[in-house]
Write a structure and sequence with these properties.
This protein has about 425 residues and is α/β, with parallel strands linked by helices. It is about 30% helix and about 25% strand. It has 3 domains: about 240 residues, Aminopeptidase; about 90 residues, Glucose Oxidase, domain 1, CATH 3.50.30.90; about 80 residues, Winged helix-like DNA-binding domain superfamily/Winged helix DNA-binding domain (Arc Repressor Mutant, subunit A, Orthogonal Bundle), CATH 1.10.10. A hairpin with a 2-residue loop joins strand 2 and strand 3. The longest helix is centred in the C-terminal third of the chain and has 20 residues. Bound molecules: zinc ion.
Length: about 425
């Protein structure tokens, strides 16, 4: 995943434009993507697709013509969505267009101005205080013109048309945890999913934040009934434990599966209730849709100082943490796929496990006692009213272990799998 992140890191992404397309080109090497271009000016619910932003160059030069701030050195240096400008101005006047972080004097802040036309530069506070009074040439070679908003999706059909949605944002420039970690995990998750049998249909959505998820919802507004649940993936590469933010529904099937998977995984995690702020879950969970879409992150956005700064760089994320996030997502998928109702075919007294060779049976890596206990729970609760998830919640046994026990019992003819 770090390899993918290293390739994507230098691209100057925004909510529209070439950076997004180049990002999707690279993801498209690994996944079969369907791309949508929605023209500027299109009305999307209460929003409008903005003009497309193209950035070619940006700098502040001193009187000698030396570039003292240079977009070519870091794409965070230009206020994202800056209008073009080319003029000479005094340092005092330039100050109104400069963003720095006095408390983190070596970091460049990430700032955007999508919906208000202006221009600006972001620089380290040390860079700014190091600039003497005098005249500077400011130059931003950009275009804001009619174009399109680009988004993409990868659909992996399953036995059922019922869908599980995964969504990540692709609109941030050189920032690793916020944006690239979600892209990397979602891409690898869908490569893995593409190679396995699927009961559900899985859809990976790669969208610019807010306007992109709104546009996806708008394009799909007549077929959202098929979405059984989903997850927004973001901020999965930092050193922290997991944070699961519940969907607006709170205790939906998706919410319960995710929480069960994280609990069973033995990883450090915390749960947060839904709030109408954050990433694209706030669109998926707006009241008109109310989809069962939660969010999986590590340290929540805004709760680490590197958030939205140049310090959210290649050193801030690690393969190990990304890999842990991928494994958590894989377990969630395995649980979604495994969960079903079960019927005990021998419900009058305990069936004799010994004569069916199940008494000393050992499940994958777990001791016989543990596995026997899981079989007893499954047999007892498999009255057709409990799903595997219900059984896991009631028994305190890991869902994965109960699923293995159910498989063994079904093979012995003691159990019949029912509906999902
Ligand atoms: Zn962000």
């Amino acid at each position: 995943m770090m390899e993918l992140i290293e390739r994507l890191y230098p691209l100057c992404r925004s909510i529209t434009g070439q950076g997004v397309r180049e990002t999707l080109d690279i993801i498209g090497e690994d996944l079969d993507l369907q791309r949508h271009e929605v023209p500027s000016g299109t009305q999307v619910f209460d929003w409008e697709i903005p003009r497309e932003w193209t950035i070619r160059d940006a700098y502040i030069a001193d009187a000698a013509g030396r570039r003292v701030v240079d977009f070519r050195e870091h794409n965070l240096h230009v206020l994202n969505y800056s209008a073009p400008v080319s003029m000479r101005m005094r340092r005092d006047d330039l100050a109104e267009h400069v963003f720095t972080m006095p408390d983190r004097p070596d970091w460049i802040p990430y700032r955007t101005s999508y919906y208000r036309e202006t221009w600006g530069f972001c620089l380290t506070h040390n860079q700014w205080v190091g600039l003497p009074d005098g005249e500077y040439q400011v130059h931003i070679d950009s275009t804001l013109a009619p174009g399109a908003l680009t988004l993409a999706e990868c659909v992996l059909p399953g036995e059922s048309e019922q869908e599980i949605l995964f969504s990540t944002h692709i609109c941030h420039p050189s920032l690793c945890n916020d944006n690239l970690s979600g892209i990397a995990v979602q891409t690898r998750l869908f490569q893995w999913l593409s190679r396995r049998a699927r009961r559900y249909t899985y859809r990976a959505v790669f969208v610019p934040g807010t306007i992109g998820s709104l546009t996806w919802l708008w394009l799909n507004r007549d077929r959202l009934d098929g979405v059984r649940g989903g997850l927004v993936l973001s901020g999965l590469g930092d050193a922290g434990g997991f944070t699961y933010k519940r969907s607006r529904q709170g205790r939906s099937w998706m919410d319960r599966i995710v929480e069960q998977a994280l609990s069973d995984a033995g990883v450090q995690w915390q749960c947060r209730e839904f709030s109408p702020y954050g990433y694209d879950e706030r669109q998926y969970c707006s009241p008109g849709f109310n989809l069962a879409v939660g969010r999986l992150s590590r340290t929540p956005y805004g709760e680490y100082p590197q958030y939205h700064t140049s310090a959210d760089n290649l050193e801030f994320v690690s393969e190990n943490q990304l890999d842990g996030a991928l494994r958590a997502c894989q377990r969630i998928v395995e649980y979604l796929e495994a969960d079903r109702y079960l019927h005990n075919l021998s419900p009058y007294g305990e069936p004799q496990l010994g004569k069916r060779g199940l008494y000393g049976a050992v499940g994958g890596g777990s001791g016989p006692d543990e596995f026997r206990m899981a079989m007893l729970w499954v047999l007892n609760l498999a009255d057709g009213t409990y799903s595997l998830l219900d059984m896991a919640e009631r028994s305190g046994q890991p869902l994965g272990l109960l699923a293995e026990a159910a498989d063994a019992l079904a093979q012995a003819g003691l159990l019949e799998p029912g509906a999902p």
